[in-house]
């Protein structure tokens, strides 16, 4: 099974830096494959808790190399919840790559484990008779210290449902659970890796961005959107 790893996160940083420099990113140092994936960018300022700056991915299997290249830029620059990440923010960024595995149809909306499973919910909005869906990655519920019901209710709101949440409505949810492997890389560690393996630290044309050698604290991804902003 393919697992998320450092080279995937390095490639995401390479892709973003190359975009700012109007260059081609170096070829990735991981093998091709077909998997669902997410790319999450977070920003740490003054040692505080990382704050989400963009997170987009796909629940459908895609080619890993093109997928990470696409979603590294899409999550950094085109997550509609946030302004595009600017070059000057790079030293404060961390990148988390996620590869999704083990999709299973749950028996009911409670048939999943906090911290182990991500979930995709699908249900019909009774007020508008439209189908709604949303997903949380496996880290979300544990990070937020939510119960299963709190997680499901939050996910229903994320899907766009604004009506009253009842037990009857929860029971009509179709839930697909999945697992993931994740890898988080700080910009400082990325820059050190590049300097060690390529002979010089990354530099932004005209932006004066170089590695700072401090280490940043990190936490799991909070909330992500999937392809087409579902």
TrEMBL record:
State what protein this is by name.
Answer: AMMECR1 domain-containing protein
Q: Which InterPro entries does the annotation name?
A: AMMECR1, AMMECR1_dom_sf, AMMECR1_domain, AMMECR1_N
Q: Which PROSITE patterns match?
A: AMMECR1 (PS51112)
Upper classification of the organism: Eukaryota, Viridiplantae, Streptophyta, Embryophyta, Tracheophyta
Q: Can you give the residue ranges of the AMMECR1 domain? A: 1-194
Pfam families the record matches? AMMECR1 (PF01871)
């Amino acid at each position: 099974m393919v697992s998320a790893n450092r080279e995937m996160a390095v490639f995401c940083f390479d892709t973003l830096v190359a975009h700012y420099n109007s260059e081609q990113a170096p070829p990735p140092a991981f093998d091709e494959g077909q998997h669902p994936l997410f790319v999450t960018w977070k920003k740490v300022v003054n040692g505080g808790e990382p704050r989400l700056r963009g997170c987009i991915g796909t629940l459908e299997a895609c080619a890993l190399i093109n997928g990470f290249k696409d979603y590294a830029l899409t999550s950094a620059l085109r997550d509609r919840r946030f302004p595009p990440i600017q070059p000057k923010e790079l030293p404060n960024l961390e990148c988390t790559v996620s590869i999704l595995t083990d999709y299973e149809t749950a028996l009911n909306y409670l048939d999943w484990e906090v911290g182990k499973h991500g979930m995709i919910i699908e249900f019909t909005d009774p007020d508008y008779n439209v189908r709604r869906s949303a997903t949380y990655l496996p880290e979300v519920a544990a990070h937020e210290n939510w119960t299963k019901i709190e997680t499901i209710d939050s996910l229903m709101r994320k899907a766009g449902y604004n009506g009253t949440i009842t037990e009857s409505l929860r029971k009509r949810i179709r839930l697909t659970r999945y697992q993931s492997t994740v890898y988080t890389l700080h910009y400082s560690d990325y820059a050190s890796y590049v300097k060690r393996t390529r002979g010089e630290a990354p530099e932004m044309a005209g932006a004066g961005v170089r590695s700072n050698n401090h280490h940043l604290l990190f936490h799991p991804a909070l909330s992500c959107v999937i392809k087409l902003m579902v």
